[in-house]
Specification:
With about 550 residues, this protein is α+β, with helices and mostly antiparallel strands. The chain has 12 helices and 20 strands. The longest helix is centred in the C-terminal third of the chain and has 30 residues.
Length: about 550
Amino acid sequence: MDNQRLVLFIALSLVILLLFSAWQRDHQPPAVVSSHSNTPAAVNNDSQTATPAVDVPAAPAAEKASTPTVSEAPTSTVDAATAEEYITVRTDRLLVKIKTIGGEIARVALPTYPVALDKPEEPFQLLDDRLPKYFVAQSGLLASQGVAPDHHALFTAEKTDYVLGDGNDELLVRLDWQGDNGISVTKTYRFQRDSYQIKLDMEVKNQSQQTWKGRAYEQMQRTEMARESMFLYTYTGGVVSSSWDPYEKIKFDEMATWKPEQSYNKGGWIAMLQHYFIGAWVPPADSVNHFYTKALPDGRYLLGLSGEEQTVAPGDSTHFSSLFYAGPKEQHRLEKIDPNLRLTVDYGVLDILAKPVFWVMEKIYSVVGNWGLAIIFVTLIIKLIFFPLSAASYKSMANMRRLSPKLKALKERYGDDRQKMSQAMMEIYKKEKINPLGGCLPILVQIPVFIALYWVLLESVEMRQAPFFLWIKDLAAKDPYYVLPLLMGISMFVQQKLNPPPMDPVQQKVMQALPIIFTLFFAFFPSGLVLYWVVNNILSIAQQWYITRKIEAGAKA
């Protein structure tokens, strides 16, 4: 195995990976999106029971066995279609709309994250109850004894507009529901300054003459999203964190059949992910929860969790609490909520390498104040760490380059007799004290680190709309003038000239085509990724040129 074959293998593997990723996204079954109302169930005007809603969770199997009278129907005394109202909440980090129907978090926009650089006043819309990008967060109660409001019940609020004032660090939004039999529920959303967390408290007061029994649930519904890029794949879908798996991906097409490994789990959380952003329900760490998923008939997918049943005696009350995070995948914020929540910044199997790489990059950014410069310095540091291995690899390549005329002469002498040619080549290697694998192994050792850096640049929200210099205004977007992809292609071509030319004519043609192929691919890559490749190639060229020149000078002497 010579160095050219290794380079060819790595290059072709990357091309195949990109093509397969694009093909996979293209051939996913399209989501069927209904054009009718976003409210899944019609509420009966005449009584407190209604047609059972398909998006209301059922009791876990273990609970059904002990409490067979669980009510699965919404409870309300008004027509939801006419009573629905939005409550607007504004903080320094969030612009939220809450529905009076169910207290549903219907829309969440992020003012500090514009939808695009040329639209700085338009915030990125993460949650939205409007089709086709339907994504909402819901919560409710289900009673096995007595009545309770699920996410179709009508709540009332003191006002419809809340703003976190300049002198305040906290904002409370209270919604009330009153049953006819003495059961009342208060939903309180707590917003804080410089936070993407929305803390939820549901208080149940039992003023009836009978014991109340029920449980709380939190869930998210959304439709599938169209892919962001034809060439780059980032996971969009559900995630469950539990005691049996800290980070379990549940794709949309798996939500119809997915079942948790256990009936109940202590702590954990659920999330809906997309590139750079996340919506997640996080219950208290000491709570016991049941996870569930469902594929709804109109193209929506549901991921939720429900807690253990609680009992409230007459004249008593109880609280159900949870936390909803709606915002960017900023690792420091996520880790403070739950350590496993950081895994939603999905570096894949190389997370153990990617995490320290990001840590170094972040430290450099805190000094230089530019993510593009941070990428350059991190690439330089990695090259310095692997300098001895790279030097061994380039030394082997230089020696192979020096032997190229002799190897070419052997091919002309022995023609198609591969056995004799191989024997003659091994004699030359032995005489010159050259290991033909010496250039391969050092490269293979470095590959995982550079792939980890690739995922750091692709997954980190810090790259989104981060400027570099001059025409590069967004490191997460492609180079608008394709300068970096062209520089990358030129650097690949120069590298090839420093390597020993392959003896196989077919390999020669393929290697000559690779710079062109990769330039075309990288033309659509985020400029931060292309910047990394350009810097890496330039540093490699400088190191390889120096070593090759030194060895060739020594051979002449």
